[in-house]
Amino acid sequence: MSKPKFQTVTGMHDILPQDQAYYEKIQEAAKKVFSFYDFEKIDTPILEDANLFIKSVGENTDIVEKEMFTLKTKGKDSLVLRPEGTASIMRAYLEHGFLSLPQPVRLWYYGPFFRYEKPQAGRYRQFNQFGVEIIGEADPIVDVQTILVMYSVLNDLGLKGLMVKVNSIGDDNCRPLYRKALVKYLREKKSGLCSDCQKRMKVNPLRVLDCKNEKCQEVLSSAPQSVDYLCEGCKKHLKDVLEYLDELKVPYCLDSRLVRGLDYYTRTVFEIESTKAGENTGGVLAGGGRYDNLSKMLGGGETPACGAAAGVERIIAEMKENKARVSFSSVPEIFFAQIGPLAKKKSLPILEDLRKAGIKVGEAFGKDALKAQLGKASRLGSKVVLILGQREALNNMILVRNMQTAKQVEVKQEDIIKEVKNILKEK
Ligand code: HAM
User: Distance (Å, rounded) from C-alpha 299 to C-alpha 370?
Assistant: First the structure.
């Protein structure tokens, strides 16, 4: 068969009916956990000023350097399809004066994000994320609460073998020292690094740490670790985070190589992975951390904050791998069949009455033959068929056929809902 003329753009995908139940289930699971922990939902626009991400995510990060979908408006503004949610939410926090609300402000979000990445398993150019941001609180317990809510959603979705990786990348006090030690080390080993890392080493040396290249991995095995360079404040913060984690039944490990690829992070960073990740999932399910400098980076005041986001498509791949149960649209237990032009005319209002009464009904209005309509009823597995023929339509009656016993009774149209509810109760 020849390919249709138009297809989805590279890296974008249709969400087909058979996958909708996964998306709904994930949104419901997220909403349930986030509502319990008092998060309020926020939606921000898909398009934002390009500078918002340049100033927050960072000029020398992969996201800003290579992955932004940028467009110029007729008025010559430079806008981008949002690559992530945190910068937009901090912008909204500052723009709407949320600082005057009781702190911290807890927000959650769900929606599409866009990154011009090389498409591969679990990596799309348009993907969905859900996430949380807790803005206005410096206490390390909030870092752990962020981890906990994200972990709980994934756990509630039935994902197995989850592992939280945690690290601290320090703050403005101590990170320069660590950076210096790392650059010194990398300079000495420069020839062993891939060409990308040789460049990264100059502009964003911490990013070298999560390079997947085998040669680089070898060099990095004895690189200095950020935890050894933490100042007293950051050390205490990390210790508290680990102690709170110890109190929870959340499997975690300290990963000294974890740095995350966005400039706004300070202190705690974390990722949640499935240790049983299948080939199609493409790795990390959720990631986040503390970003105490972001408010200042965007022209606001000193406002500590912490948050995380999870990739919906990766979670779905994991759910499929784990054979997680999701319920697809419910089967109509009642089927409506009509015979003849008068009955067909009277069918729509009767179906509307059943809908208003909360009864799900199947139909095949495009087919006139009763045999074809009953065929669909049996394919759907409907237990009861309502049949409206010419005679019943004239007499305001309707036939109710029990498909299991093949017994049929005639009832007044005004009594259909009562009759149907009784039958459904009996079963
Ligand atoms: P991120 O690690 O860039 O963090 O993305 C979070 C999650 O989104 C990833 O763990 C992954 O599951 C998913 N994801 C990212 N890129 C793609 C892609 N191209 N295709 C499919 N899924 C993808 C952030 O976005 C931060 N804003 C998280 C955060 C919130 N930090 C603090 N608050």
Answer: 70
* Whole-structure pTM value: 0.91
Taking only the tens place, the pLDDT of each residue in 274-327 is 987 555 455 899 999 999 999 999 999 999 999 999 999 999 999 998 887 787
Residue type, 174: C
**How many C-beta neighbours within 10 Å does residue 144 have?**
27
For 27-45, the pLDDT digits (tens) are 999 999 999 999 999 999 9
Contact by Cβ (8 Å): 151, 272: yes
Give the confidence band of 60 by pLDDT, cuts at 50, 70, 90.
confident
List the residue whose alpha carbon is closest to atom 18 of ligand 1: 123
Q: Residues with beta carbon inside 6 Å of ligand 1?
A: 84-86, 115, 117, 122-124, 127, 129, 131, 133, 284-289, 291, 307-311, 313-314
Contact between 125 and 11 (Cβ < 8 Å) = yes
Name every residue whose Cβ is closer than 8 Å to that of residue 153 and which is 6 or more positions away in sequence.
Answer: 26, 29, 30, 33, 34, 130, 310
What average pLDDT does the segment 38-54 reach?
97
Alpha-carbon torsion angle 406, 412, 413, 415, nearest 10: -90
Query: What's the Cα-to-Cα distance from 253 to each of 61, 167, 223, 256, rounded to whole Å?
Result: 26, 9, 19, 10
Dist. CA 305–CA 384, nearest whole Å: 57
DSSP conformational letter for 261: S
| 425 pLDDT more than 90 | no
Question: Encoding tokens for residue 40?
Answer: 């309020």
Tell me the residue type at 213: N
Tokens of 338: 């009509």
Highest mean pLDDT: which of 141-155, 373-387, 392-406? 141-155
Name, in order, each residue with C-beta under 8 angstroms of 103's C-beta and a sequence gap of 6 or more: 135, 136, 137
Q: Residue 216: enclosing H or E segment and its boundaries?
A: helix 214-220
Distance CA 387, CA 252 (A): 60
Q: Which two tokens stand for residue 306?
A: 């912490």
Residue 2's pLDDT band (cuts 50, 70, 90): confident
What one-character-per-residue DSSP string does 304-352 give? -EEEEEEEHHHHHHHHHHTT-----SPPPSEEEEE-SHHHHHHHHHHHH
Take atom 30 of ligand 1 and give the residue whose Cα is closest: 308
Ligand 1 atom closest to residue 122's alpha carbon, by position in its atom list: 21
Place of tokens 């945690």: 166
